[in-house]
Each structure stands twice: as C-alpha cells, then as structure tokens.
Recover the amino acids of this structure.
C-alpha cells in the first residue's frame, strides 16, 4: 500500500499543530504500518519551506519515513487535464495547480492520499481514496 501525503498533514506534525497535530501523526503512523508513505515534489518543496535548513528538513522527513516520489509524466498530464476541467467549469482560483499536481500524483502513482485539505481531490480525481486525519 502506497500512501501519498499532503503538505497540510506534514505541517501539522512538524509544527505540532494544537488542533490537528495528534490526529495527523496518528494517521501517518497507521499508513506507515500499512506500507510506504511518499511525498511528491510539490509536497516535498512546500514542506521544506517550513524548515530553516536542508539538514533539519532531511532529518525530520527521515524520522517519519517519508520517501520522495516525483510526479510522473502521466501524473503531470492528469494534473493539467484536471485543472483545465476545473477552469472550464468556472473555477476562479488562479493558483491551484499545486493541488492538482498532488492529487494527480496520488491518483496515478499511489493507492491513496492522506490529506486534511480535500477541496478538489474527490471531485477531480474520481476513484482516488482520500484519507483524513
């Protein structure tokens, strides 16, 4: 079982979020017990931005057992097509491609997505199993 993780869950854990930190950490543990947890390049970059150094980030991500998994060509194409569908349907946010990249990576390359922000995932990635902490 491969679980893609979204930035929101990692930030909950690394930032010890008082509202979501424990639930996110518990769900991460559960997913790790069931298989691999991966972060696509978008999630990796967004999460790295929360740390003052590469070393601190690398150590933290290793402790959690998160593996890097780049978005494939299939995933990138799916993200673009899904974003286009969103915009054609009246979607107004201009900067949501990252969300679509995360969802497409999970849909094309993983078995499920662990996220607290499920905004577009269920609608634009039918069949993707979405887990919430």
């Amino acid at each position: 079982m491969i679980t893609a993780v979204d930035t929101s869950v990692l930030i909950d854990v690394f930032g010890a979020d008082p509202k979501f930190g424990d639930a996110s950490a518990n769900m991460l543990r559960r997913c790790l017990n069931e298989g691999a947890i991966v972060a696509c390049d978008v999630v990796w970059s967004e999460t790295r931005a929360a740390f003052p150094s590469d070393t601190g980030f690398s150590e933290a991500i290793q402790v959690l057992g998160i593996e890097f998994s780049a978005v494939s060509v299939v995933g990138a194409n799916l993200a673009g097509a899904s974003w286009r569908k969103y915009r054609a349907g009246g979607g107004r946010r201009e900067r949501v491609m990252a969300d679509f990249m995360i969802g497409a990576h999970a849909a094309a390359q993983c078995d499920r997505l662990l996220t607290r922000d499920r905004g577009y995932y269920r609608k634009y990635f039918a069949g993707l199993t979405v887990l919430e902490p």
Summary: The beta strands are 2-5, 36-39, 66-68, 112-114, 129-131. The chain has a mean pLDDT of 92.
